[in-house]
Amino acid sequence: MHLRTATESDVPILAALFRETVLVNAPQHYTPAQTEAWATVDSLRFRQFILGVTTYVAEDDTGILGFAGVGDDGYVASAYVRHDCLHRGIGSILMQAVLAHAQEKQMHRLYSEASEFSLGLFQKFGFSQYDTEVVNRNGVEFTRYLVERVWVETP
Q1: 3-class secondary-structure state, position 2
Q2: What is the pLDDT of residues 88-146, one digit of tens each?
Q3: CA–CA separation, 140 vs 147, rounded Å?
Q4: Of the four listed, 34, 47, 59, 118, which is most buried by Cβ atoms within 10 Å?
Q5: Residue 135: exposed, middle, or buried by beta-carbon count in 10 A (0-12, 13-18, 19+)?
Q6: Is residue 129 part of a domain?
Q7: Exposure class string for 15-38: b at 16+ Cβ within 10 A, else e
Q8: Please, are residues 68 and 80 in contact by the beta-carbon 8 Å criterion?
Q9: Cβ neighbours of residue 75 under 8 Å, at least 6 residues apart?
Q10: Taking Cα atoms as reference points, which of 84, 105, 81, 108 lies closest to residue 93?
Q11: pLDDT value for 117
């Protein structure tokens, strides 16, 4: 497995991975309406979701295994692993890339909104939950966990 940054040509593949992962995993924690709302992909918004930040892609000879994105302001925009590759350390490798990016850019804070099934990954890497929020996505409400990792010194 190796990591690289996402390119324009990755966007359709990442969109399919995102949608399939949500459709397979979300029903364990979310209603059918929430699952479908979350899995809906708007092409232009998804392109910005991937290319508007630094998105790391994990891949091997079977294809793309997952992705994680981080903005210049420390916002962790994404952390998704292909549904058939969960619990194989891919999310951890991607999160390590995000932390290395933060160190390289001398960021003092990373933050995100975690779902029911990503909260554990964030906590594993030292993020703490500081609040929750309810958001509306495609007409359906979701509760998300607001998480952050703060360094007093440069990470």
Answers
A1: strand
A2: 999 999 999 999 999 999 999 999 999 988 999 999 999 999 999 999 988 899 999 99
A3: 22
A4: 118
A5: exposed
A6: no
A7: bebbeebbeebbeeebeeebbebb
A8: yes
A9: 53, 110, 111, 112
A10: 81
A11: 86
**How many Cα atoms sit within 13 Å of 118 on the Cβ side?**
28
DSSP tally for the chain: helices H, then strands E: 5, 7
Does residue 56 fall inside a structural domain? yes
Alpha-carbon distance of 99 to 91, in angstroms, equals: 12
pTM confidence score: 0.93
**Joined tokens for residue 16:** 């399919």
Q: Tell me whether residue 126 is in a domain.
A: no
CATH number of 32's domain: 3.40.630.30
- What 8-state DSSP symbol labels residue 28? G
- Check pLDDT > 60 for residue 155: no
Q: Pick from 68, 46, 50, 51: which is nearest to 59 by CA?
A: 68
In a domain, 149, yes or no: no
Domain that holds residue 8: 2-110
**Residue whose tokens read 């992909």:** 41
Mean pLDDT of 34-40: 92
